[in-house]
Amino acid sequence: MPHIVEIDSLSLPELDVYARLTQAQLRNRLEPEKGIFIAESPKVIERALEAGCQPLSFLMERRHITDQAAALLARCDPEISVYTGESSLLEELTGFQLTRGVLCAMRRPHLPSFESLCAGARRVAVLENIVDSTNVGAIFRSAAALHVDAVLVTPSCCDPLCRRAIRVSMGTVFQVPWTTIGQKAADWPQPGLAWLNALGFKTAALALSDRSVSIDDPQLMAEEKLAIILGTEGDGLSPHTIADCDYTVKIPMSHQVDSLNVAAASAVAFWQLRAR
Fold this sequence. Notes:
By secondary structure, the protein is α/β, with parallel strands linked by helices. Helices cover 30% and strands 20% of the residues. It contains twelve helices and twelve strands.
């Protein structure tokens, strides 16, 4: 039986992870082994558990303990703490309505090196400085659905384990292998692109330029190993990235539309450029 804690004070220090710690504090860059992320909704939490993530505590409406969270709790340490209360109190604590009624604080997993992650991969996506968590989550969902072997994020990219990115991805951040490429901003685009080339990848920047080839270019589609580089909202990929990539790639448009949202563009690119 889990340790049920009825919330009678919003100031409990054990609730800090759900309401009062910033994303940077949760991530705990100085001591990554102590980092925490928040998973929201039973389906997302289930996928995190299946990926081997360690749960630390739960926050949920009281009715869910014996309802939609019962199977989750049965998979966890029987002494795990479950903080509970009425939905209005939990909304006051977190600042948002729990649309699926269940949150779980979990230990951040250890990230592998990008070299080990790319071993055996044929298609990888690289997210260059994408800052919108919704876009990051949507890209991971497309990557999971459309045959991407791994995702690499640059050091300045939004954290894929922030709560909103996890939720938008529907937990696919726990299904698609991912890691960072480089440890500091100066590692990208160089030497990051050179590292990918050394691993046998051709690099394809999604961008409009005079030298862009169509996304259905036969030579591009036939590459054995391809890294698909996606840029941040608004500015897109940096000029240095575009200049140093093996290909610059465009998605042909109609009705004078010049570009797609990065998440939509990623889905088109992942499908068209999937390994044959």
